[in-house]
Amino acid sequence: MSLEKRRQLTGEDLHAAIDDVQARTLALWPRIASDLGLPVAGASFRRLQVNSRRQDSRSVQEVTIATGQRFVLRAVFEETNTLRQRRFFDRHEQAANKLKPVFGVSSPKLLWRDQDRPFVLMEFAHGNTAFRELALTEYGFGDRSQTIRRIGRAVAELHRVSDVGYMKFWPKPLLIKVSKRAHALRSGDLSIPKPKRFLGLCAHLHRAGQRARGQVFRGASEHGDLHLRNILMSESEVSFIDYSNHDGVFPQRDIADIWLSNCPDHLASGGRAPGFGHIAKEDWAAFAEGYGADLTTDPVFRFFFALRLFKLWSGLGHKRPDQQQKTNSVAAAAVEVFEALLGNED
Ligand SMILES: Nc1ncnc2c1ncn2[C@@H]1O[C@H](COP(=O)(O)OP(=O)(O)OP(=O)(O)O)[C@@H](O)[C@H]1O
Ligand SMILES: [Mg+2]
Questions:
Q1: Last residue of a domain, which of 123, 139, 156?
Q2: Cα(230) to centroid of ligand 2, in Å?
Q3: What average pLDDT does the structure give for the chain?
Q4: Which mutation among 59, 64, 72 tests ligand 1's pocket best, with the greatest number of atoms within 8 A of CB?
Q5: Based on the domain organization, do 232 and 321 belong to the same domain?
Q6: Range of the domain at 37
Q7: Are residues 53 and 164 in the same domain?
Q8: pLDDT tens by residue, 163-175
Q9: Over the stretch 316-337, which tens digit does the pLDDT of each residue have?
């Protein structure tokens, strides 16, 4: 289904589309079970929460078979670039294999893949999403800094096993995109909330790019969509799901995703003192300790953090009118993050 068509779906149509996607997903089970030599009959399914904007075109199901063994069946029915999807699964498989010897960090094994379509059956990863795990610490369950340290350590391991060696950073191609966006905004071809501040961010990115230019860093194949709902945590294990990259090599981008994908969710609040990018100082300290690098003083990381903010802010230009309230709150948060970046500029 095209993006436009999907945006128009509301009410009953939306429910019908969701039901249809569920039914088509469950219909895959007999083929998968017989390919894997698992019993077809007696399986029960539980719908897992997917991105609400995509629930009419994709489905993730927890499958429990008669023996009690659990799996996750994920099916995407969007008109997607099949080769790209296949590469994402290859990336997932590669990470899962490389993480095997790493204690406490993993990716669920892909047990079955459709030859052409983005349909997979994978191992079930135990635990909560890291998002929920952090939210629980607000209610006194677990320790926030310790949870963030564990996430940092796991991400460091993921990047370590995905290492592509030392590289030099050249921001030019990325800055060309920034300039084009700024130009389109100025000439009225584009509408973005808080346009003057957005143009200020574009200028900041050019300065940040200058500072990071030519710096050496350790490249690693990116996860590509590393927000806290794509990280699962049990007491003993941190698992990564939902890889969305096959050729990006900037690990800094993954880390910026962690903090800004769900903006304003992870900004400093609850009395925590804000630090770089309006993330709590203590959160940065915990993450840096787990990850093993002081990110917020690194010019290359600073550039990618600002670039992630640019991506978030740009995306607010084409939100649906019924999401106005959410858009306004994200735009206000984006301004706050930007101001924190300006405050930290040397
Ligand atoms: N292998 C797994 N084991 C356990 N739970 C899983 C597994 N895969 C997915 N889930 C659960 O299902 C949810 C949705 O899965 P997934 O992230 O693949 O879908 P999505 O909504 O398309 O994600 P995104 O918004 O990141 O594109 C996850 O947040 C997680 O809670
Ligand atoms: Mg996901």
A1: 123
A2: 5
A3: 94
A4: 72
A5: yes
A6: 3-123
A7: no
A8: 999 999 999 999 9
A9: 988 777 788 999 999 999 999 9
Residues with CB under 6 A from ligand 1: 48-51, 54, 58, 60, 72, 74, 108, 122, 124-125, 129, 225, 229-230, 232, 241-242
User: For atom 31 of ligand 1, which residue has the closest CA?
Assistant: 129
Q: Which residues of the chain have pLDDT under 50?
A: 1-4
Mutate to test the pocket of ligand 1, among 69, 124, 241, 258 (most ligand atoms within 8 A of CB): 241
Q: Which ligand is nearest to the CA of 72?
A: 1
Q: Cβ(249)–Cβ(116) under 8 Å?
A: no
| pLDDT tens digits, 242-287 | 999 878 999 999 999 999 999 999 999 989 999 999 999 999 999 9
CATH number at residue 251: 3.90.1200.10
pLDDT at 2: 47
